[in-house]
Design brief:
By secondary structure, the protein is of the alpha/beta class. Helices cover 26% and strands 19% of the residues.
């Protein structure tokens, strides 16, 4: 059984556009996991420039045993380096 999970919303240039609504999908997943008794952490990296440092610090302090990522790909022309 999963002791805890950290769901991550990574930085996205697409989401910086004020006309774009952020996805609610990962929040729905968090809600279902929470209702099932799983401890859920959310790590929202939207708009954070030093996201690699934030992820590293969070991973060291977190009790989460699994990580889940969401992604937005519209308008994304080339992949960015992932901190994982």
């Amino acid at each position: 059984m999963i002791a805890g999970i950290c769901l991550v919303i990574p930085p996205s240039a697409f989401l910086l556009d004020e006309r774009v609504f952020r996805t609610l999908g990962i929040l729905k997943v968090a809600s279902v996991l929470d209702q099932a008794g799983v401890t859920v952490e959310m790590l929202d990296l939207w708009g954070i420039e030093n996201y690699e440092e934030v992820v590293r610090d969070h991973a060291q302090a977190s009790a989460a045993t699994c990580y889940g990522l969401t992604a937005t790909t519209p308008k994304c022309r080339r992949p960015r380096r992932s901190p994982w």
